[in-house]
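Hi R.,

Here's the chain you asked about this morning:
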Amino acid sequence: MSVPPAINSERKNAYRHLLYAVFVHMRAGHREAVWWRPASWFRTGQELRKLKELADRFHNLAFFSLHDFKNFDEERFWQDIVLLGRSQGPELAERCRRIFDEYLTGRSARLL
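And the predicted structure, written out as tokens:
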């Protein structure tokens, strides 16, 4: 297996910004269940499953960021984001890519 090529500092910062955007999204995304409304239990369970899946896809990015992206495989990362889009809707994967790309171009990158 070959070692992925090193990435430049602009791309590293774009990945860090994307990671920040995902964490802001995760913080704002969960609502509390209302004990007297069983429907809210189901909704809360669905939301928590989605947030867990999002964390599962991004925890490696945090690890690689900590280690200055040594051996980080960009292609694999974006394949994982496409898979995330299949389960949570393609707009999430598209927003992730847009946040990353906009950061690289110097535009004000929106959060999720």
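The chain has a mean pLDDT of 84.

Let me know if you need anything else.
M.
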